[in-house]
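Dock zinc ion; give full complex structure.
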Amino acid sequence: MQAQVFKIHSDFYYVKNLKHEEFVCKLREVLKKQKTEIKVGDFVELSLDNNFIAKLCKRKNSLLRPKISNIDLAVVVCSFKEPDLDFIQLDRYLTYLKYNNIKTAICFNKMDLSFNPDKEKKEIKAIYDKLGYDIFFISAKNKTDLKDLKDYIKNNTIVLLGMSGVGKTTLLNSLNPKANLKVGSVSSRTKRGCHTTRHCEIIEFDEFRVIDTPGFSLLKFDFIEPNELISLFEDIKKYSDGCKYSNCLHDANTNGICSVYDNIDKIKDTRYQSYLCFLKETKEYKESLSKKGTKSETFFKNVSNNLRVKISKRKRSVSRNTQKQKIKEE
Ligand SMILES: Nc1nc2c(ncn2[C@@H]2O[C@H](COP(=O)(O)OP(=O)(O)O)[C@@H](O)[C@H]2O)c(=O)[nH]1
Ligand SMILES: [Mg+2]
Ligand SMILES: [Zn+2]
């Protein structure tokens, strides 16, 4: 029987089948051996007695942090105040989601705290409209301007991402009063929220489903290569062809050598700063890899729908077929 994982707690997997019946399962030993990681959102096959997860079904998409899968839409939530808008963090989420091919919208919350909402809206639109993001300006607390967002997320499984304290939980409660989730208060000293969500969980509402997550504001680009980064910044990439350094991997701004820098007036400053910041992180990652010598082998390959651990060529022993072939040839 097929079911979807909606919550994971220590070694227990909470799943629901198509009829909305719930089961609590453990993971089959063989899946543990294969180091198959089950995430919230995964579709799985259960054992006949419904006590075990026997197989992981193919994913539409998935994230490493937070560990969730099969997401229709990610909504990055931020606020202009309490906490202040942090463009690097916003771009961090957007870049991360783009890297993972997940459809993304941006929601600016706490508009009630803005002294000059029109100016702030204009500034934001100038950057993110052009990049193709759908943008919403709301006040979750006052329940203002929620209708468009409500229509937008209808029938989707969404995930809200954003720094702690921006109002994700408040938004969920406002979108659906039945939700009644615990809202953290913003600490008066740091003007940041306290973490209240500790685990990922799919919560079903009448009109949409949401994966509640603990958030992950410390995510760093320590998993991609420096030369992969620029394709995640279309607004910068389009000027990079004329750069003397392939993929514009340098950090110093050099007139006449770097076409990105020569066109800097056409690139939004916050975006360029984010790019340089992430570039530095990817370089540090690459450096740490070269010090370690090898990449860690956490990857799997899919052999006729079976996930198998991928072993590097160097460590793999020669297959019997190859050995036989060699003997024949000799
Ligand atoms: N002024 C104002 N405060 C808000 C709004 N939305 C949330 N808050 C407050 O921000 C704090 C953190 O909210 P919470 O939903 O727990 O944020 P989360 O950490 O992103 O889930 C709480 O004190 C909320 O009352 C809003 O639209 N306007
Ligand atoms: Mg929360
Ligand atoms: Zn360059």
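Observed: The chain has three domains: 2-61, 68-212, 226-292.
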